[in-house]
Design goal:
The protein has 132 residues and is mostly helical. The chain has a single domain (3-20, 29-128), classed as Substrate Binding Domain Of Dnak, Chain:A, Domain 2, CATH 1.20.1270.180. It is 66% helix and 0% strand. The protein is elongated. The chain has helices at 3-6, 30-66, 75-98, 107-128. Helix 2 (30-66) runs antiparallel to helix 3 (75-98). The protein is built from four helices and no strands.
């Protein structure tokens, strides 16, 4: 399931071009809960991408210092391979979590919450790689 598939339609205030945003400290409707969950995922994804740049640069620097050619992947290549596999895992796993409410209005929220949680955890994991 693509993120666009879980993004709720923005509601337009009547007579204005502004988007109505829910109070995510206490969302009331399912739509509000979904919008807030998607916002949480978007923020987690933004932070993951920022940490990715730091960790990738760190791994490339280690590769540059090591300059080993033993046939194994470089530190950066191993990180990239792991990240690609992790993204596939995250999206597939969270789709499965969403199936608890398959076809219902809660499904997109469950997927977004799962993606946010796993993305936050992954950010911690790749940050830890720079602290070793």
């Amino acid at each position: 399931m693509l993120l666009s598939a879980i993004m709720p339609v923005a509601f337009m205030a009547s007579g204005s071009a502004g988007v109505i945003k829910p109070d995510c400290t206490a969302p009331v409707t399912q739509t509000d809960m979904t919008i807030c969950a998607v916002q949480d995922f978007n923020e987690a994804d933004r932070l993951l991408n920022a940490q990715w740049k730091i960790t990738a640069a760190h791994m490339k620097a280690i590769d540059e210092m090591a300059k080993e050619d033993d046939g194994d992947p470089t530190y950066f290549q191993a990180l990239l391979n792991a990240q690609r596999a992790w993204l596939q895992y995250r999206d597939s796993h969270c789709m499965t979590v969403g199936f608890y409410a398959r076809g219902g209005s809660m499904q997109p929220m469950l997927v977004a919450l799962c993606r946010a949680e796993l993305t936050q955890e992954r950010t911690k994991q790749i940050k830890a790689l720079t602290e070793q």
